[in-house]
Amino acid sequence: MSTRNKSTNLSTKAVVTVGPHGSTLSAANLPPPNTRRWVPSRKATVIHAVRGNVISKQKAMEMYNISAKEFAEWEAWYDKYGMAGLRVTHIQDHRPAHNYPLKDL
């Protein structure tokens, strides 16, 4: 997977790492930038890509329009519960309940 840069005659290698399912992960098989439906496997793929230096965290946040806080939450839930932790229903089930006072109508 190396290419030659003709202008400087230097070899460059594409960064490849292992994805969440054990398959090869490179920039070519990242979720598309216009992803709107974030299923657990796509979130895990982005986490693995960042951790494997396929893409920088900053570039991932820009490309997918996610905040640093949201990405940190993905990582924390993934580290604690695996891919199942990235399900929206799992996150909702494990967030602390807020007891907001009811307004008088």
Features:
Arc Repressor Mutant, subunit A; disordered N terminus; 4 strands; two-stranded antiparallel ribbon; alpha+beta; 13% strand; 39% helix; 4 helices; 105 residues
Explain the overall architecture.
With 105 residues, this protein is an alpha+beta fold. The chain has four helices and four strands, in the order E-E-E-E-H-H-H-H. The strands form two sheets. A two-stranded antiparallel sheet has the order 1-2. The protein has a two-stranded antiparallel sheet with strand order 3-4. Mean pLDDT is 81; it is low at 1-11.
List the helices and strands and how they pair.
Layout: E1 2-5, E2 10-13, E3 16-18, E4 24-26, H1 40-51, H2 57-64, H3 68-81, H4 88-94
Antiparallel strand pairs: 1-2, 3-4
Report the major sheet.
Answer: 2 strands, antiparallel
Task: Give the name of the CATH superfamily.
Answer: Winged helix-like DNA-binding domain superfamily/Winged helix DNA-binding domain
User: What distance separates the N and C termini?
Assistant: 66 Å
Helix content: 25-40%
How do the strands line up in the largest sheet?
Answer: 1-2
Decide which structural class fits the backbone.
alpha+beta
Radius of gyration: 18 Å
According to DSSP, the number of beta strands is 4
Q: Into which percentage range does the β-strand content fall?
A: 5-15%
Q: What's the multimeric state?
A: single chain
Low-confidence stretches: 1-11
Number of domains: 1
How many alpha or pi helices? 4
Q: What is the average of the pLDDT values?
A: 81
**What does the overall shape look like?**
globular
Element pattern in H and E: EEEEHHHH
CATH class annotation? Mainly Alpha
Question: CATH topology, which one?
Answer: Arc Repressor Mutant, subunit A
CATH architecture: Orthogonal Bundle
